[in-house]
Write a structure and sequence with these properties.
The complex is a heterodimer of chains A (342) and B (214). By secondary structure, chain A is an all-alpha fold. Chain A has one domain. Chain A has a two-stranded antiparallel sheet with strand order 1-2. The longest helix of chain A has 32 residues. Chain A is globular. The model of chain A has no long low-confidence stretch (mean pLDDT 86). Chain B is mainly α and 214 residues long. Chain B has a domain of 79 residues: NADH-ubiquinone/plastoquinone oxidoreductase chain 6, subunit NuoJ (Four Helix Bundle (Hemerythrin (Met), subunit A)), CATH 1.20.120. Chain B has eight helices and no strands. In chain B, helix 1 runs antiparallel to helix 2 and helix 2 runs antiparallel to helix 3. Classes of the chains: A mainly alpha (342), B mainly alpha (214).
Chain lengths: 342, 214
């Protein structure tokens, strides 16, 4: 078999193994952390510290009755949860997770798809995630679901703009769209991008919450207004797929954020250089996972600390604050790059 | 392998494009439009234009068609209204469309395929495909057309905003939206007789008439 293909499949298997485990782990972390913040025990019955709770939940999801509303648009209703997973499990192929390593005298870059247009492709594929939400809301034939998906489509477009423009500012000094080049740039300069690009990082961080429908901006599912928003009519395993997609999307966006602003898999800012061999590969992957884990902890922390935005506040923040800020940041970075500061 | 992918996605693009035009439900039409755009993005990548493919997905599939869906769902259009179809206008649009399409086709063949004996087509090189080349072409060779298209879009945006505003209507920012009492009727000014001239007359809401028909 083709060596190139085997290498790609192996790398995909590694990343898939990391990202498929995000949802069950986060299920436990989220519930324990929110219990801690709200000063109550949280799930602590199944296994030590409730650690086997995700397993019990998965079993519950599988054996619950799977109801399809009789007035639902059947094909779209059934397709939506599966479609939610598709972009979630595609975007992480563009994230580098270790240094180039030598295998049988060949240099293998540790990224599944080392695309020239990497960052753009990531944003492009991530932007397709909204379709599953819209389809789910429309097909359910429920006014709460429809309201949720209308909110989702408007919200995701609004924040995508600010996010894309703040990401573009990172690419100007790097002079490349390739995520591996962005990591290499941060290695060479011994400083993570979030320091010179602080304004852009702030916009990216806020937009990331909106893009993943997390709590200050979880209006598509706002449970106190819309029952459960776009997935009101979904239960059992189909709901679990939406759940899985949400956490995988969060992790993928966290991985992009780590790559753009926190040196990706590298730790060169602290003078630690990983060797170009298997040890370096394992260390690189572990570093990336640690950075994703920290970002996920921030997601959880913010979710249980901040109240939800009102819809007009959300739109105002997106269009009147974040978008001008990101454009200002872009101009600033471009000017400073021309002036030779970066 | 590449030929196989080409035929697969070309067939998908044509097939879903036909669904876009023929399907009764606007939602299904829009979703197949997404499929058309995605297959075209794959074709762009196959043709050695990965940037174009990525931008096609990011801008068209990821943003513009989402806006289409947003509007369709906001209006809650269920089926295409057959009564509104103007046969004469349909015929003229079809004729103009066919002529434009044939003209484009002819131009494409005239510029490339029919030039027998001319210089051989250049092979795709890494440098030709690279983003840098695209950028230099776009912001160097074709800077003027690029800026003109940008200006055109700006004019369209301003035009749409002006057209959407009713003359004499108050500034429609979110803060100024009228707050209705729980009766869902706009409160009228007791000092003024007759309906508010700045607001359109309040017709029976669509959902009420629909339910009355059922």
């Amino acid at each position: 078999m083709n060596q190139e293909l085997v290498a790609t499949l192996l790398k995909y298997a590694v990343m898939f193994g990391v990202f498929i485990n995000v949802a069950p782990i986060m299920n436990w972390v989220e519930r324990r952390a929110c219990a801690f913040i709200q000063d109550r025990p949280g799930p602590n019955r199944v296994g030590p510290l409730g650690l086997f709770q995700p397993l019990a939940d998965a079993l519950k999801f599988m054996f619950k009755e799977d109801v399809t509303p009789s007035m639902a648009d059947k094909p779209l209703y059934l397709m939506a949860p599966a479609l939610a997973l598709l972009p979630a499990f595609t975007t992480f192929v563009l994230i580098p997770f270790g240094p180039d390593i030598q295998v049988n005298g060949r240099t293998v870059p540790l990224v599944v798809a080392n695309a020239d247009t990497g960052v753009l492709l990531f944003l492009a594929i991530a932007s397709l995630g909204v379709y599953s939400l819209v389809m789910a809301g429309y097909a359910s034939n429920n006014k709460f679901s429809l309201l949720g998906s209308i909110r989702a489509s408007a919200q995701l477009i609004s924040y995508e703009l600010a996010m894309t423009i703040s990401v573009l500012a990172v690419l100007i000094p790097v002079n490349s769209f390739r995520p591996a080049d962005i990591v290499a740039y941060q290695q060479a300069h011994h400083v993570w991008n979030f320091i010179p690009q602080f304004l852009g990082f702030l916009v990216f961080l806020i937009a990331a919450f909106a893009e993943t429908n997390r709590l200050p901006f979880d209006l598509p599912e706002a449970e106190s207004e819309l029952v459960a928003g776009f997935h009101t009519e979904y239960g059992a395993m189909r709901f679990a797929l939406f759940f899985q997609a949400e956490y995988t999307n969060m992790a993928a966006l966290a991985a992009l954020g780590a790559t753009l602003y926190f040196g990706g898999w590298s730790m060169d800012m602290f003078g630690i250089h990983y060797p170009h061999n298997w040890i370096g590969a394992v260390l690189g992957l572990a570093t990336l996972i640690a950075k994703i884990a920290i970002a996920m902890a921030v997601y959880v922390w913010v979710r249980w600390t901040f109240p939800r935005f009102r819809y007009d506040q959300l739109m105002k923040l997106g269009w009147k604050v974040l978008l001008p800020l990101s454009i200002l940041n872009l101009i600033l970075v471009a000017a400073l790059t021309v002036a030779g500061v970066y | 392998m590449e030929t196989l992918i080409f035929f697969l996605f070309a067939a998908l693009a044509v097939g879903s494009a036909i669904v876009v035009v023929t399907h009764k439900s606007p939602i299904y039409s829009t979703l197949s439009l997404v499929l058309t755009l995605l297959s075209m993005a794959v074709l762009f990548v196959l043709l050695g234009a990965p940037f174009l493919g990525a931008v096609q997905v990011l801008v068209y599939a990821g943003a513009i068609v989402v806006l289409f869906l947003f509007v369709i769902m906001l209006l809650n259009v269920q089926k295409e209204e057959a009564a509104h179809v103007d046969r004469g206008a349909q015929l003229w649009t079809a004729i103009v469309g066919v002529i434009a399409f044939l003209g484009m086709f002819w131009l494409a063949f005239w510029r490339t395929g029919l030039r027998i004996g001319g210089p051989a087509p250049q092979p795709l090189t890494q440098e030709f495909v690279a983003l840098r080349t695209v950028a230099v072409e776009l912001f160097g060779t074709y800077l003027l057309p690029f800026e003109m298209v940008g200006l055109l879009l700006l004019v369209a945006v301003i035009g749409a905003t002006v057209a959407a505003r009713r003359p004499g209507a108050p500034d429609n920012s979110v803060d100024d939206l009228p707050v209705y009492a729980s009766g869902d009727e706009p409160r009228t000014d007791p000092l003024r007789s007759g309906p508010d001239p700045r607001r359109p007359s309040v017709a029976e809401p669509a959902y009420k008439t629909k339910e009355a028909n059922v």
